[in-house]
Amino acid sequence: MSKAIWFIESQLAEDITLDEIAAVAGISRFQMSRAFSLATGWSLARYRRGRRLAEAARCLAEGAPDILAVALDAGYGSHEAFTRAFREHFGLTPEQLRARRSLNTLELVEPLKMDEDFVEGLEPARFEDGRALLVAGLGARYDWESSKGIPAQWQRFNACADQLPGQVGQVAYGVSCNSDGAGNFDYICGIEVTDFDELPADFTRLRIAPQRYAVFAHRDHISTIRRTVNTIWNKWLPGSGYEMADAPDFERYDKDFDPETGDGGLEIWIPIKA
Fold this sequence. Notes:
- The protein has 9 helices and 8 strands.
- The chain is of the alpha+beta class.
């Protein structure tokens, strides 16, 4: 189910079909429909509808100026259809929620939790002296629960990545930084650029200084990345004798990674003290 949940979240604004979801999970459409309901207690259609409306509600509570744009992003072809579905789901109209600017009392459908068990047989780390990087992209603030929405952030970034001037190579970076004691952190979907001078105003910019890293391969589907990250932080790092440096850590996606299927593997770079 992890692959199916990842695909749904990463394609939340798209009109994907049951056949496409089943293909990513490697099972038949019947198996997908049945297994998803048994594992989660939700039908696929109900889950996707609830997730789309939850994200739309967040946008409206933040004061989104164009309700039609929110409706289209949520998969509705008209303001009227969106308003009808929104009222049925939440008991108020999009205009009413935007006016009150609060999600209090709303029951939002949150992203379903993916697998976070330890990985057996984690590949040994290799160690790299990383060079300085200028990373530009889309940033958002999360805690460990809300970070299940990161696949949707990647979808938004992939749709606008061609707008970035000064791109260096074809490698994409998922950077975690600015964490606090409450478990909140910034996550940036980005690429390396030569400079920040010509970037659109709403893009996040991050300078990463030269740093020593422990580098881990994640060769499985992207949906299981939490297991690998959890294993690195809570199993490998405590027993390694290394101490994490106060610097960003990141995922590195090269040309072999396919953002449409989630296959191809990636690397996880953890900053360590030299």
